[in-house]
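TOKENISE THE FOLD
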Amino acid sequence: MQLQIRPLDFADTPWVATFPPEDWHFDFQAMLRFHLGHDYFHPLVGTLDGRPVAVGHGIRHGGIAWLGNVIVLADHRGRGFGSTLTAHLVDFMQAMGCHTQVLIATQMGAPIYRKLGFRVTGKYAFLNGVQVLGGNLDPKIGLLEPKDHPAVLELDRRATGECREKFLARHLSAGLVYRDLPDGEIRACYLPSLGTGSIVSSDPDAGRAMLRMKATHIAGPVVIPDANQEARALLQTCGLIEYTSAPRMTLGPEPDWRPDMIWSRAAGYCG
């Protein structure tokens, strides 16, 4: 039976809410409903006899797209549905002008992506453990204000190589920034509502301060680019240990990103 692929809409979200494995610890329905209706978000669903059996989506930042949450229900795996949906999603995003596509691969998904032309361009380390919680906040950390938005968006662009203004817009009001003086240059930004919390920084001192705050005040895993060894060392002093890793894979030209500027990855579906 052939998989039928169409755009996912609000009515589909209850049906696909349980698709992610339990160990992802991920409210999939909430994520979908948060992004649905925004022009950067392109979710697809694959159905058999009208019943959803596969999902996946793309997030578009100009000419760069992130693919994420490509999932096939367990009792329908091994029939090529994952490959079919992913190929359709790649073609769809290319038609939208995204000639670079990036994803973080699971062990199950990596062979599919390789066959479609994706190559490994980096790795992310996942750390967790019994954290040392508490302590005073660095006084150089303060609230992100509306006047800070241009500087924060430029800092994010330098770190990721992507123009993510629309995607980040609803997260800025809950953000924190690091600067030496009250009206000085913003050297780091933390967006706690973006996935598990995004931290980007233009220098190591500010990055360490923001990451230390996250690691000692907010329980849970932290994901970092494997290339940021300073972030790893700091997390280990806070009691976290690496428990797994996953490859970053790219189709097309690699974005001009700076893994040394990324001190906490937000989520697998957006970097």
